[in-house]
């Protein structure tokens, strides 16, 4: 039995492109799988399937290597999202145009939350609490006329 496990491990390492590439994929995706490549989307993400794994773990995506560790599920095309989560059984690369794309549909955009592009509402009301602005380090040496409560003591 242990020999069959080692044989399977060597097969998975071989499928993933050798030891170096397997360690890289293990670092990025936290697991190693072998499976059939189903397709690729317009963003460069590659989709795989292996029905020997449990349902829910039998389909996976390898995000475009250009994003490295900064990948996020909003980088996936909506058609592929439905396939990955078993909402549909059709493969978007084999049946393009299903579901149909209409002119009024906007292109998919990455989620900007947590970035400087995130939406921040504008408020005209005055804040009830003033923000604390910490004193700059070394300010005591520059200005000896500061009040005692303004000095920062560390």
TrEMBL record:
The principal location of this protein is mitochondrion
Q: Which GO terms describe its biological process?
A: response to oxidative stress
Kindly state which keywords UniProt assigns to this record, in alphabetical order: Electron transport, Membrane, Mitochondrion, Mitochondrion inner membrane, Respiratory chain, Transport
Carries keyword Transport? yes
Pfam family membership, one: NDUFA12
Q: One GO cellular component from the entry?
A: mitochondrial inner membrane
Lipid bilayer topology: Peripheral membrane protein
Q: Where in the cell is it found?
A: Mitochondrion inner membrane
Protein role? Accessory subunit of the mitochondrial membrane respiratory chain NADH dehydrogenase (Complex I), that is believed not to be involved in catalysis. Complex I functions in the transfer of electrons from NADH to the respiratory chain. The immediate electron acceptor for the enzyme is believed to be ubiquinone.
**What subunit structure does UniProt give?**
Complex I is composed of 45 different subunits.
* Family, per entry: Belongs to the complex I NDUFA12 subunit family.
Protein name as annotated: NADH dehydrogenase [ubiquinone] 1 alpha subcomplex subunit 12
Organism name: Laodelphax striatellus
Its ancestry begins with: Eukaryota, Metazoa, Ecdysozoa, Arthropoda, Hexapoda
């Amino acid at each position: 039995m242990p020999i069959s496990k080692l044989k399977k491990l060597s097969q998975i390492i071989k499928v993933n492109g050798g030891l170096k590439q397997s360690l890289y994929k293990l670092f990025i995706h936290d697991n190693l799988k072998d499976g059939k490549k189903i397709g690729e989307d317009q963003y460069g993400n590659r989709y795989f399937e292996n029905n020997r794994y449990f349902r829910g773990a039998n389909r996976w995506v390898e995000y475009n290597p250009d994003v490295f560790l900064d990948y996020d599920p909003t980088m996936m095309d909506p058609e592929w999202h439905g396939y990955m989560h078993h909402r549909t059984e059709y493969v978007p690369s084999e049946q393009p145009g299903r579901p149909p794309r209409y002119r009024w549909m906007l292109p998919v955009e990455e989620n900007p939350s947590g970035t400087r592009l995130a939406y921040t509402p504008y408020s005209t009301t005055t804040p009830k609490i003033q923000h604390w602005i910490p004193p700059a380090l070394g300010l005591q040496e520059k200005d000896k006329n500061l009040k005692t409560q303004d000095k920062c003591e560390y």
